[in-house]
Amino acid sequence: MLAKYAARRILLTIPVILAVIALTYGMALYGAGDPVATLVGQTEARGDVELIERLRSEHGYDRPFVVQYADYVRKFVSGDWGTSFQLQNQSVRILITNALPVSFQLGLVALVFLVGFGIPMGILAAVKRDTWIDRAIVSTSVLADSIPSFVLAPVLLVILVLKIGVIESAVGWDGMFSQKVLLPAFILALGPMLIIVRQTRYAVGEVLQQDYIRTARAKGLGGRHIVFGHVMKNSLQPVLTLSGLIAAYLVTGSIFIERIFGIPGFGYLVVTALQRNDLPLLMGTTIVAGVIVLVANVVVDISYAILDPRVRFG
Amino acid sequence: MFDQTVDRRTLLRVSAASAATTAIAGLGLVATAQDTAPEGAAEDQTLRIAALADAVQLDPHFSYGRSTTGTFTNVMWAGLTKVNADLEVVPDIALSWDLSEDGLLYTFHIDPERKFSDGTPITAHTVVGAWNRSLNPETQSLVAGSYLRDVIGAADYWRGESTELPTGFRAIDDLTLEVELFHPRNYFHKILSHPSTFIINPDEVATHTPDDPWTLRAVSFSGPFAVESYQDRQLLTLVRNEYYPTNPTLQHIVYRLADDVQTQFLLYQNDEVDITPLGIADADNVKNQDPTYREEFVEQPIWWLDNLYMRQELAPFDDVNVRKAFAMSIDKATILTAVERDLYTNMDGIFHPEMDVYESGEPVLAFDPDDARAALEASSYGSADALPNIAFWVTGTEATGTEATRAAAMQEMWRQNLGVNVEIRVVPTYEEMLESDVQLVIGSEGIQYPDGSTAVGYLLCDSPANIAQFCDEDFDALVAEAGMTQDEALAIDLYRQAQAIALDSAALLPLWRRANHYLVKPHVQNFVTTAMYTMPSLADTLYISEA
Amino acid sequence: MRAGHPHEKTAETSKSLASALESNRLVQQRSLWRDAWDSAIRNPFAIAGGMIVIVFLGAAAIGPAISPYGYTEQNLLNIEQSPSWSHWLGTDELGRDFLSRILYGARTAFLVATMVTLVGGTLGVLFGSVAAMSEGWVGGLIMRLTDVVMAFPTLLLAVFANKTLRPAVQNQFNDLYELTGLELFRSRLLGDYLVVFGALALVSWPGMTRLVRGQVLSLKHSEFVEAARASGAGTLWIISRHIFPNVLGPVIVSLTVGFGGAMLLESGLSYLGVGIQPPGASWGAMINENLDKWRYTPHLILVPGGVLAVVIFAFNFLGDGLNDALNPRRRR
What we know:
Strand content of chain B: 15-25%
Helix content of chain C: over 70%
Largest sheet of chain C: none
Radius of gyration of chain C: 25 Å
Oligomer: heterotrimer
Distance between the termini of chain C: 43 Å
Structural class of chain C: mainly alpha
Distance between the termini of chain B: 37 Å
Shape of chain B: globular
Order of helices and strands of chain C: HHHHHHHHHH
Largest sheet of chain B: 5 strands, antiparallel
Helix content of chain B: 25-40%
Radius of gyration of chain B: 25 Å
Largest interface: A-B, 51 and 50 residues
Number of helices of chain B: 18
Number of strands of chain C: 0
Number of helices of chain C: 10
């Protein structure tokens, strides 16, 4: 039964992906700006209409949409994702496969922050509900979520690196285990931290109020036992839902942070592609990002199904 | 996997090079760095420069922007001629050349000692191969064919209109290259100082595939430095080319790549780089407010002219009086001080002061609100109310920042001085702007090589870059003749006459020329930068002194 | 009440059962709202949030009218001044009074967020209800559509949609201007707003749709609805009397929090250069314009950044407070 559910769920993503590709290609080709004209416009050759027409034709952008779409899907599936217009004609697939691990590592460290700070804070807030501790935790996490990352990042950068000198060098990428990753990962974690804290607090709070917990407490069974035992198991579910979304966010949502900290990750590719009308790169990054989100959703749905048998038959 | 360091190959190459150098040095034929390094030079001659990751381009035939060519391409690659620190075009790979009587046939003599950084000799055949590669339609260089368009067969091949290799250039023997032109061009040798004509190793480039680009494993560099390793968007490390004639004192150049200018400044303040370019805000602060870094501040005006164009084929700018009115209502001095923070310098003409062709004099379209209003009244419209809608172009991808500020300031000036409300319109691409009815445009004109011809090219009738839509037969005739005559003095005079025609008819309003600003650490000696963005002393006299 | 056929009697019984249940529920509902209000009042953060929101709304409504200078008024001799008596928040890079621009930015933020929340919310409620109530392929189609839209990372889609819509809207405007000659269509600002609304609404409707659908689905199979169904009530009646009031709570919470999210998203768009274009004042655009000189004139980004954060903060708290208040299971 589970296998059938899982298979059905996975199969359902295929039409979605195809639709995503069609939507993206359509928007890129007809709305967002001509990739060839943009490229040529950046050079001394701008205004050379003949050159632009010739290049557009060579890249096949003057063919009917359906033809282009089918061609693109066919090539994509066989591994040919085209070359980037704006990034020195590099292969889009290689650009993305080089950038994803970087974003992934950054996201992983951010996840450590999230889980390491967010969940304990949420639990603490739930246990100490309606006390000043609870209020302080909630308000701090709301505050953290409200400040745009592109405001916070440069401010922290200058303060911590230049003024206080606590971090030696914060710009660039030396891999997951260098100290450079701490500040960007921390700022990246701030956004979802609110959600984790809130959700954990709510879920734990729910469980703590259940009658059987109250009964157990009334009977004098140890507090910590209860928290860790029952609470963790029952509050897992909502947190699980969110971790799917959050995982997706961590990989694809680090646009501002990567830009400011000079991290050669996925977010940077997305911004470049969008701002400079780099169609092949835009297609590649959007599809990959979409697939990541869909995969995360599928994984979450399947874990739900494992935890809650009712879902499989839904 | 994502780290594109290429260590083993580097090791082999460097050891081979040093073995060779030592052997030859032993014969006293090549002066090594130890011989030329001055007193007080540090042990480790490594220069660290902060640069924009976006500007990196390892292939000279795809180098399109000034910051790319000046900062990177000219450091790694070389051509038949080069522009020196005094902005003169001097021999490089071609030691000398002869020109036929009719000015149509060049015979270049290639330096017999010239080699790539891996020892491969550079011959006339190499040059032919390199140019065939740059012009190959499959290469898709956007500009190669337009720079070599005077050479017989080049443009047709580049445009895909002919499948035959160009016949206009050929190697007579290893050291002699003949180039044949359609018409005389007294500046042709200057064109060869542009990177789109630079010499790469055709055999190496031939192995390129998109999944395995040749640039990432190249070993044959024709310029003063060769690529030692490259981490995409992080670090570009260059090593001295032992075969380069001027014997750089530097051993390594390390480019720290960042995404924006503030990060670069941060790196400099943190002592992670020795030289950094400065963005507007930081340059303003260092130059005008905070003296902390002023000793290390370098300002270099560049050959980058901003012009205000009033498109003549669109009403109301088909009327010369309207153009004059708009031109004369711009108070450039105030904009230069308030918006551009005294970082740029005023220009009243289209030639830069360092050029032979430049001549100082009274500005033709000086700021004068009274004259401006008078001109408007004298026009066929008579008053501001009779004018149709006027739009001012700002590009879509950079609608904030100084460009928008500049536009807003000018918009206000026209409102105050002429009573005209100009609309600011954001149009994403240059092409769309050309097709639209936007009448006012600020355009930037760069100089591709040091010659009057590039300063006037965009005002020729059939130039695709002619935003002003200016077309004057006499202007074209003067420019054509100036480009063909062998009499230098006459050429200068002809260019000046052409400029007069353009300015008298208010075809454009020259605004200002920009400047590059750098911070250079005190232990960097002999730093030189030019109006063409280059840093020529990297290739010879620049060195790091002991801290 | 007619005696008679058995099925009539059943119908009668069902009807009275339904109305009895309903009046019971209405009583419960009334006390739910009252309880919610009581609980909200006691939550200081919700109160604080609410007050800040009111201030914000006030600034948006009358701010530009009472501001000392016009928000586009330049003074090139007076650029980037620190706060002073004549300019309480200093001036920006064109000598424009910063306080006036901040006040105007409040209006921009409010307009954008309101439009987006309204449009996104309305679409979401509509589609969500339809999806839940429909028995056939319509529901499935709607959900697949939400899947497609939600597969795109939010910011990416917003920027993308923005870039795609802009030329279309501008061309339409140009055509409309030619057609009607109305000055309205020359206004680039209006076009900007529409494009941003459209893009952000596109991004936000799926979330609301999912939420509403989930809520409606769970209610669909509840007692009241079954009873009402059995007594022959029409779909529309069921929706308006039973479903809508119960869905309202979560929807309100989502809208409130979504308001802050929309503002944050708009500022992100402006930061990337695709939001409201200058000289229109948007807090996000002001941050973007001044990011490169914040070390020298920090107030130029600290003020819009701070104001943005505080307002989003307020909406988040208000939403949290409402959530706590309206959630019946949380009652102690």
